[in-house]
Write a structure and sequence with these properties.
Elements: H1 5-8, E1 10-11, H2 18-36, H3 40-50, H4 61-64, H5 70-80, H6 88-109, H7 111-132, H8 144-158, H9 164-170, E2 174-175, H10 186-191, H11 193-210, H12 225-242, H13 248-252
Antiparallel strand pairs: 1-2
Helix pairs in contact: 2-6, 6-7, 6-8, 7-8, 7-12, 8-12, 11-12
């Protein structure tokens, strides 16, 4: 039995790009090793060495010296915290958001731009947490800030005419071309009612988590909402720097036939 070229050109919802599958595999593997192979003491050391801890940057040498890793950890924890998760619920929720939004981004950016973008938005989330909670000794872990950046970046093209969401509404699946439609300019995105509704709900949930109105996880872990917001707006603003495709404004200004 053969399929027509039109059927092959669609992108099934479960056709996840290899780079996103690799991201999932790395996150799951790290969590499994921590849960199965490490003692409690070894896991505590790993978290203190690779989680992002704002107090590490304290001007008080006694406070900053409490954490292992030295100067290297001052640098690498801006990224490595995103590879650690608190429990199965934490990693499960993050993967549930990563797969759809990471898939959309990887199809548009390609593997290497996707990786670079996720690392940059993770660092932006850590910076926002450092600014919002200076001196905090609570380790921050999780890929949520980077995933928030992927969400924001996806908003720049997901709602476009002939884009992924439009294609899903009018066909059996989004074609590869649907992920390459010219992106909306930033100001147009900020005026889009659909984006504003998504933003309001997303920020509202983060605020509820941040103030403890909604608990999270078995022990009600604290949500690093500042990092989520930092990653989100970094993704929104930095999208154009990573996007390999022609911006909407340039596309519209091009010569007509």
């Amino acid at each position: 039995m053969t399929q027509s070229p039109e059927a092959n050109s669609s992108e099934p919802i479960f056709n996840v790009p290899p780079v996103v599958l690799a991201t999932v595999a790395v996150l799951v593997l790290i969590h499994a090793i921590r849960a199965i192979a490490l003692s409690s003491a070894a896991d505590d050391w790993l978290v203190l060495t690779f989680a992002f801890i704002p107090a590490r940057y304290s001007t008080d040498p006694f406070v900053s010296g409490l954490f292992p890793g030295g100067f290297g950890a001052d640098l690498w924890t801006f990224f490595t915290y995103a590879f650690l998760h608190a429990d199965l619920m934490h990693i499960g929720l993050n993967l549930a958001w990563l797969i759809p939004f990471g898939t959309a981004l990887a199809r548009r950016f390609g593997a290497w731009r996707y990786i670079a973008f996720m690392l940059v938005t993770a660092a932006a989330g850590a910076l926002a947490q450092l600014i919002g909670s200076p001196g905090s000794q609570a380790p921050m872990i999780g890929a949520s800030a980077a995933i928030s950046g992927a969400m924001a970046a996806s908003m720049r093209f997901m709602f476009q005419r002939n884009g992924p969401l439009d294609s899903w509404r009018h066909s059996d699946g989004a074609t590869a071309e649907a992920y390459r439609v010219p992106a909306a300019p930033l100001l147009a995105t900020l005026r889009d009612a659909r984006f504003l509704l998504f933003l309001a709900v997303w920020i509202g949930l983060n605020v509820l988590f941040g103030f403890g109105t909604i608990s999270f996880g078995e022990q009600g872990q604290q949500i690093a909402w500042q990092a989520h917001i930092g990653g989100f707006f970094a993704g929104l603003l930095l999208f154009a720097a990573f996007d390999p495709l022609v911006p909407r404004a340039q596309f519209d200004a091009g010569p007509s036939g």
